[in-house]
Amino acid sequence: MGNRFTHARSRKVTEEDYEVLEMGTPGLLTVLVMLFGYTKPAKSTPLQAVCDIRVLDNYIKEAKIAADSVKRCEENCALPGNFTLPRTSVSYREWAEKDLPTKAVEVQGGLKLLAAAVQKAQNLTVNGNVLYVVERSYSNIRSIMQMVKSFTPVILSVEQPPAQATFNSRTVRTIFHVYLNFLQGKVRLFFLDTEACNLATS
User: Fold this and answer.
1) What is the pTM for the complete model shown?
2) DSSP letter string, 36-83
3) pLDDT for 80-136, tens place per residue?
4) Under CATH, what is the fold of the domain 53-201?
């Protein structure tokens, strides 16, 4: 009984193949057109990053991993010279009272300071493990900067100085501590801003 089933199935495949060969090129093209006509390609819809906080949260997770990986990095990770970093403290009440242009300039200004500091650290770091973390973080910061710029292109086209206070440091550990806190604070608040979200989707 098992042999009979196998034989019947094999004969069915052979007959179908024969019918396809008999159709020739025009018939085969017709079948392909029908198949592609009924199969609609899936459209890839990019995430609206400012409206989907999960996009930023992925960067925050990576920033936390980076900060943890250099937490015990002391003398070997000291850098020559100081680097200007943004202050990360934020008053939620004061932030809510600021208009969108002020928020956008403040966030972008802080990210520029972080990008400059991380890039300098990248050029001066000799520790292989730390270098990988630095390079990855620099790429992420640049991506976040582009996202913020795409949300508010007109606002950020005007050259304005950073609105937030700054301080100086020379350690990789401090740079990544500030990087994480800045993403969790001002950048995340900006991503959650309703006005910015409406501007991005309009």
Assistant:
1) 0.70
2) HHH-PPPP-----TTT-HHHHHHHHHHHHHHHHHTTT--GGGEEEEEE
3) 778 899 999 989 999 999 888 888 889 999 999 999 999 988 887 666 777 888 899
4) Growth Hormone; Chain: A; (1.20.1250)
